[in-house]
Amino acid sequence: MTYRMFIDDERFPPRNETDWVIVRSSAEAIAFVQEIGVPQFISYDHDLGGDDTSMKFITWMIDAYLDKKISSFPVNYEVHSQNPVGAKNIRALLDGFIRCEIL
Question: Which domains does the chain have, with CATH numbers?
């Protein structure tokens, strides 16, 4: 299945397209990837309510990829978070991993 994931606890994708899967927590994102497979594109919010963040999901994906529990890693992404420090942390982790492990 080819799809794009939008991970945010409140907002919706800006485009009215049908291939977005909306998940509201890191646990929901992990469960969806385990069941359906890795998305081709992910749009990240950092803060997902309470102490939940997209960093939990990203860390899980990195570990799952390195442990060969998922066969691919989504290198196409955007960060739509309004938290500047959180957005910077997401980009740093993803860009570093993609540069060192994937490319």
Answer: 4-102 (3.40.50)
